[in-house]
Amino acid sequence: MTRKEKRVREALQVLxxxxxxxxxxxxxxxxxxxxMLDLAANMPWSEAGxxxxxxxxxxxxxxxxxxxxxxxxxxxxxxxxxxxxxxxAGLVLYNPDKLDRPVNSPKAVYQVSPRxxxxxxxxxxxxxKSELAHYLSxxxxxxxxxxxxxxxxxxxxxxxxxxxxxxxxxxHSELIKAIVTEFAQRFAPGSDVVYIGDTEDxxxxxxxxxxxxxxxxxxxxxxxxxxxxxxxxxxxxxxxxAVTSHGPVDGKRHAELRKLFGGSSAGLVFVTAFPDRRxxxxxxxxxxxxxxVWVADAxxxxxxxxxxxxxxxxxxx
Length: 317
Known about the structure:
Blueprint: H1 3-17, H2 27-36, H3 55-66, H4 75-88, E1 92-94, E2 110-112, H5 114-120, H6 128-151, E3 155-159, E4 163-167, H7 171-187, E5 192-196, E6 205-206, H8 208-213, E7 227-231, E8 236-242, H9 251-260, E9 267-274, H10 277-281, E10 292-295, E11 302-304
C-alpha cells in the first residue's frame, strides 16, 4: 500500500468514526476531507490546516496531491453529495469569511470548523479516542450554533396572510422577497403564492395541491419559475423569473413555461423581474414579446413587451 493509499484509508476511517452517512464514506469524500485539511500524504495529522476552498480548488488540490482527476462536470456531485453533508454534520463551515455571500456565488467557499480541526489534529495519537468521544458528545450543540450563525443572514419572506419562510442569503433572494411583497401587492392584489424557489432549496415553498386544482402537476425535474402567484380574482397564474445572474423569460423559456403549465385552467402571465434597470439593460434584446418586465427599484411601474393587452394572458394561437 502506498503512502497516498494509506492516507485515504485513514480519512475514510475518520469519516466513519465521525458518523458520516455511509453514502459519504467513499474515496471522493475522503479526498475532500484531506483537501479541506490541506493534508498531503507525507504530512502528519497534527499539521492539518484549514484553508478556505471552493469546489473547483478542492478538485484541483486532489489532482495535485493525490493524482485523482475528476471531470469538471462532477462539481455538483462534490457539492451535493459530499460538501453539503460535511456542512450539515458541522464538519465544515460555509462562507465563514462572508456569511451573507449568495449560495450560488462563484466565490463560495468552505472551511473546516475550528472545533473539528482541533479534533482531527489528534488522529493517530493516544488522545484520539477520548477527544473523539468528547467531540461527539458536544456535536449537536456545535452544529446548532453554526446553523444559528448562518440563519441570521437568511432572507425572511412573508406570504399568504403572514406565513413566513427564510431564503438563502443573496441578491437573488432579496429580489424574490421584493416580488412577493411589492410586485404581488401592486399588480396581483389578493393573490396566493403557489411557489417560491430558493437557490439552496429548489422547492422553498410549494403548494402542489393548489397548483393541481388548477390542472397543473409538475415533477421534481420540472424547471419552475422563481415565483408563481395564483391571481384568482382574474383567473391568472403569474409566472415570474427573478433575474440576478441567469436570463429572463426569453423565447425559449417562454415556450418551456407554456409547456410546463400547459394544463392550467387559469390564464398564464409571464413576468421577468430585475433588481434595477442597469441589470435589465443586459437582457433587453432577449426578453420575449407578450411578456412583462418589473424592476424592483421602480416598483410601481411595469414595462410591457408589445402585445394586444397590458398584463394579461394570451392564447397559444
